[in-house]
Design goal:
Two copies of one chain form a homodimer. In chain A, α5 packs across α7 and α7 packs across α8. The longest helix of chain A has 26 residues. Chain A is mostly helical and about 200 residues long. Chains A and B meet through α6, α7, α8 and α9 of A and α6, α7, α8 and α9 of B. Chain A binds a DNA duplex (30 and 30 nucleotides) through α3.
DNA sequence: TAGCAATGGTACTGACCAGTAACACCTCTC
DNA sequence: GAGAGGTGTTACTGGTCAGTACCATTGCTA
């Protein structure tokens, strides 16, 4: 299998895309740099000309994944400008979409696969996760939820759980109920005490 | 570091305990059989006399982890015999305890680390996860929850999420809120419609 | 005490992997 | 057309890993 080999895509981008695909499908540790280079239609030397090391490649993959997540957030906000409560619903839909085609969160997977990774990798993971949590809490707050942090944490736990569960037992497991459970949680937190 | 080396513990049990500890701390793929044998105070040959392969060792670790989980469930039931609702609260406490000292669920970690593992490993993981889900749903049902499966899925997602989140961002992340969020969910599902 | 089963120790094989060196090629620009 | 930067190719190093062969040792039992 090749990834855009021969197309007008720069080797660096092919390598990055291929690495993310293989890291996701086979796991980070199980994927060798040779396999990445070959699948990307290039060779190991070119890979090392663009990325100082495999760790650097991993960080670059995570940074691109973070950028993708930013775009998803922008799409959520654009779906209902000025209506944070509708954006919260759109966020649930967005996450539900993530559950369908992905093997799981690239950051969580990296955290599990590389418990003793270098500082740069760990920092990239924690920074991303904290950003997501903050952003979700802000959306809950803007939606007028009385306890925005608690709803945000509830939803964050459910997303993480759904993405992991899907890897462990597939789509038939609890991940299947994510949308329903998340909507219930939002409805409850929104109704328990209306804001003053 | 050695694991009960020299004590009156059979090599097989030392190997198993050490393997679980190292798999948890360093990751499965990052842990070599040499390291396991040495840390267990024995050698690789003895390891291979007890376990046909590293995969077989992994399966044995997961089976022991499943056995540990059974004991935790028995403790939950014994904490409030005949009072399933109190058992549900005890279950939350039990999970909260799990969050404190573990690196995460050994089954979920294995699923993430070994996406292309052999059938035996995959089957062990899915069987365990389905058993846990069924058992939790039964406890919710016995507690008189009107929608036991949905509460069970909500709680299952939150447990999975909390254990993963703890690995990714530590105890300061959403995992910190698990107990509070889980109790809220239980309270809501129990109150929304009392059973007939 | 003889024997047997379990264990310890050493050394090895074959495979894989991250990373590097040296050189050839191609394409674009000046 | 000449140089330069990016790319392709091959071959290599040093290290790690799973798994095995072979033999020595211990400890229990008959």
């Amino acid at each position: 299998m090749t990834n855009d080999a021969g197309a007008q895509v720069r080797p660096r981008d092919r390598i990055l895309g291929t690495a993310r695909a293989l890291f996701g499908r086979c796991g980070i540790r199980a994927t060798g740099v040779d396999a990445i280079a070959e699948t990307a239609g290039t060779n190991k030397m070119t890979l090392y000309r663009h990325f100082q090391s495999k760790d650097a490649l991993i960080v670059a993959c995570l940074e691109q994944a973070a950028s993708d997540a930013d775009q998803l957030w922008e799409a959520v906000e654009a779906s209902a400008p000025g209506d944070p409560r509708a954006q919260l619903d759109a966020w649930v839909e967005m996450v539900d979409g993530l559950l369908k085609d992905s093997r799981g969160c690239e950051f969580s997977n990296a955290a599990v696969e590389l418990p003793e990774a270098c500082d740069i990798v760990r920092d990239t993971i924690t920074h991303y996760k904290k950003t997501q949590r903050t952003r979700l809490a802000q959306l809950c707050r803007d939606s007028g939820i009385p306890e925005p942090e608690r709803l945000a944490d509830t939803l964050a736990l459910m997303v993480e759980g759904a993405r992991i569960s899907r890897q462990a037992v597939g789509a038939d497991g609890p991940a299947d109920s994510f949308t329903s459970c998340a909507r219930t949680a939002i409805g409850y937190f929104a109704s328990v005490r209306e804001p003053a």
